[in-house]
Each structure stands twice: as C-alpha cells, then as structure tokens.
C-alpha cells in the first residue's frame, strides 16, 4: 500500500505504525498549568512528579502477511520502574530488566471497547527501540488482535481512519 506520510510528507510503500504523542492524562491538565506540572519528552512523561508514563509499541501480527502493525501507545509505570527504565533506555550495557507492569494510557478510538487502563507489560528492548507493550490476555479486541493477529483489511481501515493519505 503506497501512502503519503503526514509527518514527513514522503511516499512510503509499507504498513505505517499509528501512534499517540501524549498519554491521555496529559490532556486532563489545564493548558495553562502544563508547563509547570508536566515534563514531556518523545518517550517519557511525568505529571506532578507523581504520575509516570513511557511510550512503547503494541505490535499486532497481520494475518495475511509476514508483517506487524504497530500502535504507538503510552503506559503508566510505578516510580521505581520508571526510574529503572530511564537508567536503561538507549543503553545496551544493562542486564535483562523487566518486564514492567503498566496500565494502558492511550485511548484507541478504532476499538468500540475502551482501551484505557487495560493491563499491560512493557518489555524493554535494546538498540534504542521503544519497549514492546504486551496487552494482558482478555476478551478485549486489542488483546485478541495481539494474540491471534489482525486481518489486513482492518489494518487498512485503521490507516484510513487515522488520516494517512493514500
């Protein structure tokens, strides 16, 4: 599938990942207070020095292809795990760490069942890759897609819903 990426403006010929650039909780902070209450990077977010979030990827195998579709998501971590994550991210000298439990903090509107606060595990990866996020087994369609795969036609539906130009 050829598409024009809205981020870079280039034509691509692969399956794009779709992601969120902020956890939902970011938007709950009044805009005038964000500068003092929120510390946001492309990979981490802290709110009020009390709530800790990391960005990762939920990968869904595409049934008809030898490929995956990625959802860029945010999950919450307890402070201890967040600090450990900061010590390891981008550093390939660490021993195996994690996985870390977290609550999904990204609302994926494609699913009619709410995705907020699904149980997840963050698996830290090397080489500067964002963590692989595994949704805990449940009857939620996102969990089922991660375990059993997602049909390519649904991937195309998602890509069109989220505004990738074909």
Can you walk through the features of this model?
It is a single chain. This protein has 166 residues and is α+β, with helices and mostly antiparallel strands. The protein has one domain (3-161). 22% of the residues lie in helices and 28% in strands. The chain has a five-stranded mixed β-sheet with strand order 3-7-6-5-4. It has a three-stranded antiparallel β-sheet with strand order 8-9-10. Strands 1-2 form a two-stranded antiparallel ribbon. A hairpin with an 8-residue loop joins β9 (119-123) and β10 (132-135). The longest helix is centred in the middle third of the chain and has 10 residues, at 79-88.
Q: Could you tell me how far the N terminus lies from the C terminus, measured between alpha carbons in angstroms? A: 8 Å
Which structural class should the secondary elements be placed in?
Answer: alpha+beta
Largest sheet: 5 strands, mixed
Overall morphology: globular
């Amino acid at each position: 599938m050829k598409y024009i990426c809205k981020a870079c403006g280039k034509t691509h010929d692969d399956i794009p990942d779709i992601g969120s650039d902020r956890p939902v909780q970011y938007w709950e902070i009044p805009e005038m207070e964000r500068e003092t209450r929120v510390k946001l990077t492309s990979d981490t977010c802290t709110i009020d020095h009390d709530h800790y979030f990391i960005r990762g990827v939920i990968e869904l195998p595409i049934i008809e292809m030898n490929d995956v579709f990625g959802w860029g998501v945010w999950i919450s971590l307890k402070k201890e795990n967040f600090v450990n994550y900061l010590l390891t991210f981008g550093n390939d000298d660490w021993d195996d760490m994690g996985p870390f439990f977290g609550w999904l903090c990204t609302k994926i509107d494609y699913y009619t069942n709410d995705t907020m606060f699904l149980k997840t595990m963050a698996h830290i990866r090397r080489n500067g890759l964002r963590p692989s996020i595994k949704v805990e087994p449940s009857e939620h369609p996102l969990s089922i897609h991660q375990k059993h795969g997602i049909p390519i036609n649904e991937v195309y539906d998602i890509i069109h819903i989220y505004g990738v130009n074909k």
